[in-house]
Specification:
about 45 residues; mainly alpha; 1 helix; transmembrane helix; transmembrane; membrane
Length: about 45
């Protein structure tokens, strides 16, 4: 009888995690950049 108590290897989700971070992080970074740029224009004339 084979030993089935060892856990099966999980798929590597690092590429999916990196893609998800980019999917959220890129627009967030662009939005923050635009916010700082427009706030600078607003307060410096």
């Amino acid at each position: 009888m084979p030993n089935d108590s060892s856990p099966s290897p999980q798929p590597d989700r690092r590429p999916l995690t990196a893609f998800a971070w980019l999917w959220v992080g890129a627009p967030l970074a662009y939005g923050l950049y635009e916010l700082v740029r427009k706030a600078t224009q607003l307060f410096t004339g």
